[in-house]
From TrEMBL:
This is Peptide ABC transporter permease. The keyword Ligase does not apply. PANTHER family: OLIGOPEPTIDE TRANSPORT SYSTEM PERMEASE PROTEIN APPC, PEPTIDE ABC TRANSPORTER PERMEASE PROTEIN. Residues 79-268 form the ABC transmembrane type-1 domain. It is found in: Cell membrane. The keyword Metal-binding does not apply. Belongs to the binding-protein-dependent transport system permease family. SUPFAM superfamilies: MetI-like. It comes from Micromonospora gifhornensis. It is a multi-pass membrane protein. InterPro entries: BP-dependent_transpt_permease, MetI-like, MetI-like_sf. Pfam families: BPD_transp_1. The chain crosses the membrane at residues 83-107, 114-136, 246-268.
Length: 283
């Protein structure tokens, strides 16, 4: 008997291949970050002037750069730093933003108003502009880029966590805890914070891709990871002067950045859809 897909199940069926590919891509990125030597064909800092700007070949799948370094190996080794910046910035932003947001909702009206007005001011600026301001103070570098991206993302998590905490605070089990005589600190850590975090984490899963793209943008501008360290954004900056003679220096790192951002978005959207009870996402 032939099974006919309904309008509800058809989009889900079409979304599954993209979701599988996204998980496979993230798995390869995790492998490259954890054990780059398993995938790379050479050390990322091996210089060979005689092979400078060599074209794509079996020995150099992505060609070589102006110093004769293997571009494929540098892309593989650059995965670790790129992911550390993206994941580190998102983790730091979630931690600080969630704590401040839940604290604002639980501390009272005066503190809540103060936190929200500051948050509104910061949200009025583009996130990348806030990151640039922080880097202007701290200076360039991978660690400072992580801090800058986290600072730019914190206001959004503050507002999201605060909204979730207000919903939780009005729930029946929190009212029951108050009636039972639980302290405000106990209610905060035992009920409000644990139940307000899941939606924030679901949003963070999607936001990792945004952090990866922003970190590559800052490195492209020379404000992120500094050469000769392999990092996707800095590799894009180094290769822009050789597009005519060695297009692989820019194209391949750019493709990897794009694929990583799309994979993070697809997987994050699926996780958020599952949390919200809408089944398999992957859109």
């Amino acid at each position: 008997m032939t099974t006919v897909l309904t309008p509800v199940t058809a989009p889900v069926a079409r979304a599954r291949p993209a979701l599988v590919l996204a998980w496979v891509g993230l798995g390869l990125l995790a492998l490259a970050a954890a054990w780059p030597a398993l995938l790379a064909t050479a050390a990322p800092d091996t210089v060979d002037p005689a092979s400078a700007l060599a074209p794509i070949s079996p020995h150099h799948p992505f060609g070589t750069d102006q110093l004769g370094r293997d571009v494929y190996s540098r892309v593989v080794y650059g995965t670790r730093m790129s992911l550390l910046i993206g994941l580190g910035a998102t983790t730091l932003a979630v931690t600080v933003g969630a704590l401040l947001g839940v604290l604002a909702a639980a501390a009272g009206r005066a503190v809540d108003e103060l936190f929200m007005r500051i948050t509104d001011i910061l949200l009025a600026f583009p996130g990348l502009l806030l990151a640039l301001l922080v880097i202007a103070v701290l200076g360039p570098g991978a660690v400072n880029t992580t801090i800058a991206l986290a600072c730019a993302a914190v206001p959004g998590y503050v507002r999201l966590a605060r909204g979730q905490a207000l919903v939780v605070r009005r729930s029946g089990y929190v009212s029951a805890a108050v009636v039972m005589g639980r302290s405000r600190v106990g209610i905060f850590f035992g009920h409000v914070l644990p139940n307000a975090l899941p939606p924030v984490l679901a949003f963070a899963a999607v936001d990792v891709g945004t952090a990866l793209m922003a970190s590559a943008s800052l490195s492209f501008l020379g404000l992120g990871a500094q050469p000769p360290a392999p990092e996707w954004g800095s590799m894009l900056a180094e290769g822009r002067d050789y597009l005519d003679s060695a297009w692989g220096l820019t194209v391949f790192p750019g493709l990897v950045v794009t694929a990583a951002v799309i994979a993070c978005y697809v997987v994050g959207a699926d996780l958020r859809a599952r949390f919200e009870g809408r089944g398999t996402g992957g859109r």
